[in-house]
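A quick aside before the break. I want you to see a complete sequence-to-structure record at least once, exactly as it would be stored in a machine-readable document. Don't worry about memorizing anything.
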Amino acid sequence: MHFQRSIKIIAQGLSHFSGSMDLYICQGINHMNLNRFDEALSIFLEYQTHAHVIPYIIECYKQMGDFENAQIFSAKII
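That is the input. The structure line, written in tokens, reads:
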């Protein structure tokens, strides 16, 4: 319930700060907490060049049963 409310609040923030990577990452984490890994992943993939986002991408792929892509992104962690 709290994460659903949080998604709405962050969406309002994004309407004012549409370029905020931090807000998008928070939105992705909220989707993860609601087991919406496909929605979270679509957000995280937009920021895959940022190292701190890679663990979220890996976890989404694992939760979705896509271990091949999880392994590919695991190799990107240095």
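Two observations worth writing down. The mean pLDDT is 94. The two ends are 36 Å apart (CA to CA). We'll return to this after the break.
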